[in-house]
Amino acid sequence: MGGEEGGMHDVVVAGGGPAGLSAARTAGEAGARVLLLERESAFGIPTRTSGGSFIADLAALGVDPDLYNPITEVRFLGPTTEAVVRFERPVVCVLDVRALYQRLAERAAAAGVELRLRTTVTGARAEAGGVVVEARGAGGPTTVRCRHAVDATGTAAVLAAAVGMHPPYERRAVGAELDLAAPHCPPGTCWLIVGERLAPHGYAWVFPYRPGRVRLGVGVMRPDSDTDPRRLLDAVLALPALAGALRDAQPVEQHAGLIPVAPLRTPIVGGGVVCAGDSASHASSLVGEGIRYALGAGEAAGRAVGEAVRSGDPAPLRRFERTWHARHRRDFAVAWRVNRALTGFVDARWDAAVEAIGSTPPWFVTASLRTDFRPRHILRLGLTHPRLAARYVRAARA
Ligand SMILES: Cc1cc2nc3c(=O)[nH]c(=O)nc-3n(C[C@H](O)[C@H](O)[C@H](O)COP(=O)(O)OP(=O)(O)OC[C@H]3O[C@@H](n4cnc5c(N)ncnc54)[C@H](O)[C@@H]3O)c2cc1C
C-alpha cells in the first residue's frame, strides 16, 4: 500500500476500539462501504483498559454474558478504612476486554466492513463532498477518500485535531495495569483503593475478569500529578488487605493507557468528521469509565453516518450530536465536578469518604458509580438517610 488509493469509500473509521468497531458495524449494516484503520496488529492487544462495567447496560447493548465476569462484592480501601458493598444479585461486572473487542471485530466483518490492521491514521482534510484521510501502513504513506470519517482514535482524537475541531486534551488520566494469573482471587470480588500513597490524584483497582485472571492497576491524573503509575503497581500488589486474594499471583502482561478527563466535547461533528468514544470525551470522569459509552456512541454514530450516506443529507449526524449531548450532559457534568473535588483529597478526607460509603445503601453506591445522578436517587436517599443525602449533594456541588 502506498500513494493514493483508487475509488472512494463511503466511510473511513479511524481506530478499532469499542467505539470504532461498533461504528463500523452499524454503518456497514446500514449499507455503507466501510473501511476501518487500526494502528495495532490486533484488536484488543495490547489491552489498555480494565473492563469494569454494568451488566444491565451491557445487556442493552447486546454484549454476550460470556464476555464478562459478574461481581457481587466491591471493597473500598481507604488509607486506614475499609467499606464493603455487597449485592444480592450482581449489577457490576468486569469485561474480558480482549475477547469483547475481537467479538466486535467479528461482528463488523460480518457486516461487510473492511478491517485493516497496522495502519496509523496521521491526518485528514475536508474536500468537496467528503474527506481525505491520510494514513501510514506497511506499504508506506497513503490517502483514502471517503464521504464521512469517524474519529474513534480514543484520547489521541487524531481526526478531531486534524480538521481543527478540537485541540488535544489537556486533562487526562494515565493508568498502568498488571494482568495477573491469580489462582486464589475470589472471582466475585473487586477492590477500589484510594489514598495519597498508593494513588495520588487518582485511584487503584483490582478487577477479576475471569476465574484466575485479574487486572490490577493504578491511575493518576495529569497534570495534577507527575507520578509514574507503573512505579506504584508493586506497592498495591503488596497491600496486606490483598495478600490472600493475590497469593501466588504472577504477571502475564503489563500495559498502560490514557483516558480523557474532560467535560463532554462539543461540537463532535464537523469538517466531514464525526467523533465517538474517548475522542469525543464520551466517558465518565468520575472513575474513568468509558467502554459502554464508547459502544453506545459508536453504534449511534455509525447508524447516523449510514443514514447520511444513504440520504445524502448530513442531518442525522447533527441529530446524533444533539441526542448524545441531551442524554449525557447532566450526569457527565456532575461526574466532572466530583472528579475535580476528589483530585484534591488528602488521606483524612479519603478515609471519611470510605466510611460514608460503608453506611450508604448499595443501590445508591451503584447508581453513583454508574454516573447516574438523576435527582430522584438523591430524593430517595434523603428519605432514609437525610444526612448522607445532604453530604452527597454538597460533594456534587463542590
Ligand atoms: C488504564 C485504564 C483503565 C480503564 N478502565 C476502564 C474500566 O474499568 N471500565 C471502563 O468502562 N472504561 C475504562 N477505561 C476507559 C475505556 O478504556 C475507554 O473509555 C474506552 O476504551 C474508549 O473507547 P474508544 O473506542 O473511544 O477508544 P480506545 O479504546 O482508546 O480505542 C482507540 C483505538 O484507536 C487506535 N488508534 C489510536 N490512534 C490511532 C491512529 N492514529 N490510527 C489508527 N488507529 C489508532 C488504538 O490503537 C485503539 O485501538 C480505562 C482506561 C484506561 C486507560
Describe the protein.
With 398 residues, this protein is α/β, with parallel strands linked by helices. The protein has helices spanning 18-29, 55-60, 97-110, 158-162, 233-237, 291-311, 315-343, 347-358, 362-369, 375-384, 386-397; strands at residues 3-4, 9-14, 34-37, 52-54, 68-71, 73-77, 82-86, 92-95, 114-116, 120-127, 130-137, 140-151, 172-181, 189-193, 202-210, 213-222, 250-260, 269-270, 273-275. It has three domains: 3-44 and 99-168 and 265-336, FAD/NAD(P)-binding domain, CATH 3.50.50; 52-95 and 171-260, 2-Layer Sandwich (D-Amino Acid Oxidase, Chain A, domain 2); 340-397, no CATH class. The protein has eleven helices and 19 strands. Strands 1, 2, 3, 9, 10, 11, 12, 18 and 19 form a nine-stranded mixed beta sheet that branches. It has a seven-stranded mixed beta sheet with strand order 7-6-14-15-16-13-17. Helix 1 (18-29) packs parallel to helix 3 and helix 6 (291-311) packs antiparallel against helix 7 (315-343). Residues 14-20, 37-40, 48-53, 120-121, 152-154, 156, 158, 175, 177, 217, 219, 257-259, 277-279, 283, 288-291, 294 line the site of flavin-adenine dinucleotide.
Describe the structure in brief.
The chain has 11 helices and 19 strands.
Keywords summarizing the entry:
D-Amino Acid Oxidase, Chain A, domain 2; 398 residues; 7-stranded mixed sheet; FAD/NAD(P)-binding domain; binds flavin-adenine dinucleotide; alpha/beta
Average pLDDT over all residues: 95
Small-molecule components bound: flavin-adenine dinucleotide
Q: Which secondary-structure class do the elements indicate?
A: alpha/beta
Kindly estimate the percentage of residues that lie in beta strands according to DSSP: 25-35%
* CATH topology group of the largest domain: FAD/NAD(P)-binding domain
Helix share, percent? 25-40%
CATH architecture of the largest domain: 3-Layer(bba) Sandwich
